[in-house]
């Protein structure tokens, strides 16, 4: 490890500056580190030779006696300057300092005459360019404007605003621009304040809105916004993205100009100026963008390191800025060229040096640069080399064993072999970058290593290092050898029967097949020894139809992949077409058109059947719900027939009595069974009789006993007054006509009460 004082580094670097014509200029450069240190200067990348006009001082600074923007020979002292420092360990280069000549142009904009009514707003503007930026002051009637007057606002860019105009504001105005290069005066302009303050309403209007600005951090931004109207509008500011503007470093100049001091990158955005009519939502807006740039600065500096020969050195350099800086690496002051063992990653933030040797010992610099500025940082790589280390291993040979295996052998070093504790074999695909290298450790008594799990038909590079407790030897010579080619793997084969004479062989493409040129397909009858084929198929083919087969025998199908190294192992499948033939006999081919028509007819029939079934279910539910009321209505119909002459009682069956509600128990049974009477059964049980006299005294209504049958009366009899009673078991009298009475039935007939 080396102390800070031993590192070659800059204490003071040259900075950007603006030089005055014909005046001297000094650029400072101070370095620390182990002496002797040599300092030199460059301008625009070209070495500066001491001359009468420019020479280096004893402290390393550069002195320009008479700075000139343009010399007689056409050259200029303007440009980018840097200093270089070198000692025994390396060379470093400072940041670039941009030197410009102080200038001032003529006025681009002069103030203009203005006539404004009392109470209004007046605005004068001067615009001039120069280096450094000119300071602009205003004069009224040849006297400096009183900046203590709150109605007078002077903006840094050369704008004068006067609000709430009065008669005494009238006068002659001009501006004065000053910088280190010159002093200039603008033309004069007259301001006339006319009339008295008007009370006529005027909509708010923005006379001048904010300009688009691009500034650097820590500078000050002034966003102008001047509005008129009657009543005088209220000016407010906001950001277009909705973020708060904040309060720190924020100030309002005059009646509505926004000033932001000590700018940061977070201040970048689009700012909106709004002029609002007091007490209403009437408003006018204008907007302008503010871009804040930040010069490059380091978040992480590269660190000096010491590494043994043959190892890897890594430097990390992380910078930030706005816009994001570009990173460049130098080696001893020269642009670093990448190679197989020098790599840049992560947008040049990481420098990796693989297999370092003594030639890599140097000072490495990271330069970060953007449009706002540049910076640099350096670090030194020290390559450690111990005396007495083994010499490189000798006679490295590599022999191919198979498509995935190579055997590497070597001989022990010629010098300093006593302290060897082992060897390290470095392995890499010849086409891969150095960082893809990997290692395998080998004991000190072993002089060969079988390297496995390699890829077929691939070139590999090998070298050996001998290790001791104090470090490693230099690398041996590199040997390159290729693995053998490999035949493709077995493909996946599937057989599909198309018809009684055709099968389809299909297979899946897979990276597991490896490199292959195509496929070979064979097939034969199993009882034969001779194959048909090979059928050669391209590598992108995945299916093949085998036709004109015999349906009565079993076939063997074989598929293999091949390449320039030979044929791979085959996949075999057996297939029989007999089952297909039998299925065809049992299930003859269909008439597709006829089946389609039948399907349509069947579908129509199914739909109609579903509708009929649903209708039947609905009717059944209705019959169950209104079954009881239906039976009472049937009894009323029976009553109508009983009120007319009926057949003799002896001809009535027991069934008829039961149907007329002979007993409550039977009626309940009937309800539970859900049986319904149809009209044919009623006609059979109660046939109409031609006799007009009443034959039955046990079954009658109260109305029929006292008067002839009145159909209207019966039809209006309420159902809830209808009741059924049992008939007394007394023997029935004989008929007046002499006919004998019917024998009593086990279930007595009902009698109806009115």
TrEMBL record:
Residues 663-673 have a biased composition (Basic and acidic residues). It is a single-pass membrane protein. The keyword Protein biosynthesis does not apply. Keywords: Disulfide bond, Glycoprotein, Immunoglobulin domain, Membrane, Repeat, Signal, Transmembrane, Transmembrane helix. SUPFAM superfamilies: Fibronectin type III (SSF49265), Immunoglobulin (SSF48726). Residues 643-654, 689-704 have a biased composition (Polar residues). Residues 8-100, 105-192, 204-287, 295-382 form the Ig-like domain. Residues 643-754 are annotated as: Disordered. InterPro entries: FN3_dom, FN3_sf, Ig-like_dom, Ig-like_dom_sf, Ig-like_fold, Ig_I-set, Ig_sub, Ig_sub2. The chain crosses the membrane at residues 606-626. Coiled coil: none annotated. It is found in: Membrane. Pfam families: fn3, I-set, Ig_3. Belongs to the immunoglobulin superfamily. DCC family. This is Immunoglobulin superfamily DCC subclass member 3.
């Amino acid at each position: 490890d080396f102390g800070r004082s031993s590192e070659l580094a800059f204490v003071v670097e040259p900075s950007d500056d603006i030089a005055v014509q014909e005046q001297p200029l000094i650029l400072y450069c101070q370095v620390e580190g182990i002496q002797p240190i040599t300092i030199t200067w460059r301008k625009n990348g070209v070495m500066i030779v001491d001359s009468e006009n420019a020479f280096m001082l004893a402290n390393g600074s550069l002195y320009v006696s008479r700075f000139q923007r343009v010399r007689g020979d056409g050259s200029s002292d303007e440009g980018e300057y840097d200093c270089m420092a070198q000692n025994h360990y390396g060379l470093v280069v400072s940041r670039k300092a941009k030197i410009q000549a102080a200038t001032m142009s003529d006025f681009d904009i002069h103030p203009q005459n203005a006539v404004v009514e009392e109470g209004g707003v007046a605005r004068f503007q001067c615009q001039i360019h120069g280096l450094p930026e000119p300071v602009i002051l205003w004069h009224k009637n040849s006297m400096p404007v009183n900046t203590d007057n709150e109605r007078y606002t002077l903006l840094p860019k050369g704008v004068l605003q006067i609000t709430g105009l009065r008669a005494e504001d009238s006068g002659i105005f001009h501006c004065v621009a000053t910088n280190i290069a010159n002093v200039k005066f603008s033309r004069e302009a007259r301001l006339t304040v006319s009339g008295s303050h008007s009370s006529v309403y005027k909509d708010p209007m923005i006379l001048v809105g904010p300009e688009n600005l691009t500034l650097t951090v820590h500078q000050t931004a002034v966003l102008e916004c001047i509005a008129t109207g009657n009543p005088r509008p209220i000016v407010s500011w906001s950001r277009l993205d909705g973020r708060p503007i904040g309060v720190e470093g924020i100030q309002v100049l005059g009646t509505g100009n926004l000033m932001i001091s000590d700018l940061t990158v977070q201040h970048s955005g689009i700012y909106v100026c709004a002029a609002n009519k007091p007490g209403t939502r009437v408003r006018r807006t204008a907007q302008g963008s503010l871009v804040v740039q930040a010069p490059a600065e380091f978040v992480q500096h590269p660190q000096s390191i010491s590494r043994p020969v043959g190892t890897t050195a890594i430097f990390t350099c992380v910078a930030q800025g706005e816009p994001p800086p570009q990173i460049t690496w130098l080696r001893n002051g020269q642009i670093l060229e990448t190679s197989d063992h020098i790599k840049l990653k992560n947008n040049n933030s990481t420098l990796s040096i693989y297999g370092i040797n003594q030639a890599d010992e140097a000072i490495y610099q990271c330069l970060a640069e953007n449009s706002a500025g540049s910076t640099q940082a350096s670090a030194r790589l020290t390559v450690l080399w111990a005396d007495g280390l083994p010499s490189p291993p000798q006679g490295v040979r590599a022999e191919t064993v198979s498509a995935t295996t190579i055997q590497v052998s070597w001989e022990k070093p010629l010098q300093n072999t006593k302290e060897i504790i082992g060897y390290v074999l470095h392995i890499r695909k010849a086409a891969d970058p150095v960082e893809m290298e990997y290692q395998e450790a080998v004991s000190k008594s072993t002089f060969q290593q079988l390297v496995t799990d390699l890829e077929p038909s691939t070139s590999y590079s090998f070298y050996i290092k001998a290790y001791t407790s104090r470090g490693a030897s230099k690398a041996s010579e590199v040997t390159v050898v290729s693995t053998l080619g490999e035949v493709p793997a077995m493909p996946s084969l599937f057989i599909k029967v198309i018809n009684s004479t055709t099968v389809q062989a299909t297979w899946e493409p897979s990276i597991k097949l490896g490199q292959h040129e195509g496929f070979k397909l064979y097939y034969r009858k199993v009882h034969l020894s001779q194959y048909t084929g090979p059928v050669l198929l391209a590598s992108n083919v995945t299916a093949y139809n085998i036709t004109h087969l015999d349906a009565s025998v079993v076939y063997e199908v074989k598929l293999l992949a091949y390449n320039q190294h030979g044929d791979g192992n085959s996949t075999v499948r057996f297939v029989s077409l007999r089952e297909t033939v039998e299925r065809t006999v049992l299930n003859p081919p269909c008439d597709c058109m006829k089946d389609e028509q039948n399907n349509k007819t069947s579908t129509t029939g199914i739909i109609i059947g579903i509708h009929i079934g649903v209708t039947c279910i609905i009717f059944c539910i209705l019959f169950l719900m209104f079954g009881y009321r239906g039976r009472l209505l049937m009894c009323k119909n029976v009553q109508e027939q009983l009120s007319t002459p009926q057949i003799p009682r002896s001809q009535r069956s027991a069934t008829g009595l039961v149907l007329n509600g002979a007993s409550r128990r039977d009626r309940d049974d009937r309800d539970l069974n859900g049986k319904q009477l149809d009209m044919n059964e009623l006609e059979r049980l109660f046939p109409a009789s031609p006799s007009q006299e009443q034959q039955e005294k046990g079954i009658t209504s109260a109305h029929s006993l006292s008067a002839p049958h009145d159909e209207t009366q019966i039809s209006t009899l309420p159902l809830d007054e209808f009741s059924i009673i049992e008939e007394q078991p007394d023997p029935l009298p004989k008929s007046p006509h002499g006919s004998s009475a019917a024998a009593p039935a086990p279930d007595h007939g009902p009698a109806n009460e009115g």
